């Protein structure tokens, strides 16, 4: 346990290493098989197909690439529209803007900060092709209602599950519910390979073409399985697979993924319980996780009463050696969002929540610092 009077120096994020990464990377180097789609890539793909329950999982070099594959795979065209939250990372929109598609930004719910399913239908136009949901902080969107709306309007559902590996909605893994989904393994995520992502194909109709796009527009996957005697260029595609070294690093993480998330949940629970008195006092609001959602403790955030309180809180923590950060500037208010997309009316919840949210550090190894972090944070809050 840290000395009570010692000076803190707590970064916001510190990627966790299992201890097997170097050995697996050395294995790849020894085999002289450095390109993508090697043994470790296939092992990771199989892990996702088993854990998520999807017909086809394909590792990518980023979650952004996986989302770009989704837009390409379903033939979105210039002038088409997709609905998505404004409270998300730029990649959610960029993947579709690159295809000439217009992102239409919908407001979020005040409880989970996920897209507000009650406002989706009002945002649908004759050009709408898909609903892109973002499971913020690893907490599932209201998928039953969203799927119902999508079916009624003949729309696709694409899950941006960048933050949601091994999170669940009513017992179903996030990333398994929409037709397509994407995960991230950026160094800030629960399981990481530095950069990296995965593309989930839950509708078997898209599986064969997804492999072709992933294999640079060729049918090489069939060739590798011995189904054809040579492979050819037969469709559009790109170089989406990660290098085998990246897959080897990821495999070391996936082997321990359940344990990693269980430790993160204990950290998250410590914060949640510690800030309950301050929530009752009106100083903060803690995250709200519906009973039917099982989250993966990707983010622990607090909502301050107003933007000036947030600024003061962040400054106070920084002065005490604790790095805490805000999150997204809403895409609809950003220069590129105004250029390439449009808001579906006023988005008051998005504006209010994004201006008040603070994320506290959650990483494996921080446990020894938690009592001091909570103590210092409480001290700052009490003074506001």
How does this model look, in words?
By secondary structure, this protein is α/β, with parallel strands linked by helices. The protein is 38% helix and 14% strand. The protein contains 15 helices and 13 strands. The chain is globular. The mean pLDDT is 96.
How many beta-strand runs? 13
Strand content: 5-15%
SSE pattern, N- to C-terminal: HHEHEHEHEHEEEEEHHHHHEEHHEHEH
Shape: globular
* Quaternary: single chain
The count of helical stretches stands at: 15
Note the main attributes of this structure.
Aspartate Aminotransferase, domain 2, 384 residues, Aspartate Aminotransferase, domain 1, 3-stranded antiparallel sheet, alpha/beta
Write the layout of secondary structure elements.
Elements lengths: L20 H11 L7 H14 L3 E5 L2 H11 L7 E5 L4 H8 L4 E5 L13 H4 L4 E7 L8 H10 L3 E5 L7 E2 L2 E2 L6 E5 L12 E5 L5 H8 L5 H5 L19 H11 L2 H18 L1 H5 L12 E2 L5 E4 L3 H13 L15 H6 L1 E2 L4 H9 E4 L9 H14 L1
Parallel strand pairs: 2-3, 2-4, 3-12, 4-5, 5-8
Antiparallel strand pairs: 1-9, 6-7, 6-10, 8-9, 11-13
Helix pairs in contact: 1-9, 2-9, 3-4, 12-15
């Amino acid at each position: 346990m840290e000395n009570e009077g010692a000076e803190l120096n707590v970064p916001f994020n510190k990627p966790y290493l299992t201890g097997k990464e170097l050995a697996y990377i050395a294995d790849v180097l020894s085999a002289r098989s450095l390109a993508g789609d090697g043994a470790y890539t296939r092992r990771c793909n199989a892990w996702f197909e088993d854990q998520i329950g999807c017909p086809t999982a394909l590792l990518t070099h980023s979650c952004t690439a996986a989302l770009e594959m989704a837009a390409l795979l379903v033939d979105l065209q210039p002038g088409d529209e997709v609905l998505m939250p404004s409270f998300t990372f730029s990649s959610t929109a960029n993947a579709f803007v690159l295809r000439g598609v217009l992102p239409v930004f919908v407001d979020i719910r005040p409880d989970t900060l996920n897209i507000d399913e009650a406002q989706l239908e009002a945002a649908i136009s004759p050009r709408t092709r898909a609903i892109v949901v973002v499971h913020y902080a690893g907490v599932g969107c209201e998928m039953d209602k969203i799927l119902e709306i999508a079916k009624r309007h003949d729309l696709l559902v694409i899950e941006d599950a960048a933050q949601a590996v091994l999170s669940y909605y009513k017992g179903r893994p996030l990333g398994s519910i929409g037709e397509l989904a994407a995960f991230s393994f950026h160094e800030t995520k629960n399981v990481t390979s530095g950069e990296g992502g995965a593309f989930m194909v839950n509708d078997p109709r898209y599986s064969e073409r997804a492999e072709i796009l992933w294999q640079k527009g060729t049918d090489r996957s069939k060739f590798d399985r011995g189904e054809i005697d040579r492979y050819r260029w037969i469709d559009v595609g790109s170089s989406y697979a990660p290098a085998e070294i990246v897959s080897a690093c990821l495999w070391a993480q996936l082997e321990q993924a359940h344990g990693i998330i269980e430790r993160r949940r204990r950290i998250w629970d410590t914060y949640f319980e510690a800030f309950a008195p301050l929530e009752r006092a009106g100083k903060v609001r803690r995250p709200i996780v519906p009973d039917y959602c099982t989250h993966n403790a990707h983010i622990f955030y607090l909502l301050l009463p107003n933007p000036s309180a947030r600024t003061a809180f962040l400054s106070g923590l920084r002065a005490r050696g604790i790095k805490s950060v805000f999150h997204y500037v809403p895409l609809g208010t950003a220069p590129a969002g105004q250029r390439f997309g449009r808001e579906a009316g006023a988005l008051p919840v998005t504006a209010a929540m994004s201006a008040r949210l603070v994320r506290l550090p959650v990483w494996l190894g921080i446990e020894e610092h938690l009592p001091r972090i909570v103590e210092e944070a409480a001290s700052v809050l009490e003074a506001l």
